[in-house]
Specification:
about 200 residues, alpha/beta, Rossmann fold, six-stranded mixed sheet, two-stranded antiparallel ribbon, about 40% helix, globular
Length: about 200
């Protein structure tokens, strides 16, 4: 018995892996460059004449669905987003159909936080709910977006969630086009956290 106690005392506690975000600007920059390279390699960055969902015309298009269907790129996105989620006071990862769902699912797996899917409209069958997953009034959510432009669609989703009593405190976007989304979300007390900005991606 004495030998067992002595052995227990000698054993050092196993340190948990640090979940804190990178502490230096260089580490953030390294992550950003890794993601930029992956987005370009999978064909997510396209140039030409495009009409965006907002109706605006653009000379470039960020097709994050190319990234979210590529396992290697999706894994990079999930890992980088998870680092930021672990620094947030949230307990649920949410995504709006369609683009946000694979992203939120990957981040949910990486962080082991519950997943919530927000439908764009109410279904006229089944539960007729806008939500897939459990949503409680006390929940604090981070929402995943593929690309943010003006921020209108994600703002609408935030308002739908808040009608239940739950709260969306942060929105993580893979790419922010820097066309007003940050300011629009600030109006509803939500913080936009881009993994990459368009100005970085298009250099």
């Amino acid at each position: 018995m004495k030998n067992i106690i002595a052995l227990i005392r000698l054993q050092k506690p196993v340190k948990k892996m640090s979940q804190s975000k990178p502490e230096t600007g260089n580490e953030f920059e390294t992550q950003k460059q890794e993601l930029i390279a992956a987005l370009k390699a999978c064909g997510a960055v396209r140039y030409g004449d495009f009409t965006l969902a907002s109706g605006k015309k653009s000379k470039y298009y960020i097709d994050i669905k190319k990234a979210s269907t590529d396992p290697k790129t999706l894994k990079i996105i999930a890992r980088q987003a998870a680092l930021r989620v672990r620094e947030m006071d949230v307990d649920t990862v949410a995504g709006v159909e369609l683009g946000g769902v694979p992203l939120a699912t990957a981040v949910s797996l990486e962080t082991e936080l519950p997943l919530l899917i927000v439908r764009k409209s109410v279904k006229d069958y089944g539960t007729k709910s806008r939500f897939v997953g459990n949503l409680k009034p006390e929940d604090r959510l981070v929402m995943l977006e593929d690309v943010t432009t003006s921020g209108g669609s994600v703002k609408d989703a935030i308002e739908v969630v808040r009608e239940t009593g739950a709260n969306v405190k942060y929105v993580i976007t893979v790419v922010d086009r820097e066309e007003g989304a940050r300011e629009k979300l600030k109006e509803v007390n939500a913080e936009l956290v881009p993994l990459v900005s368009a100005s970085d991606l298009l250099k």
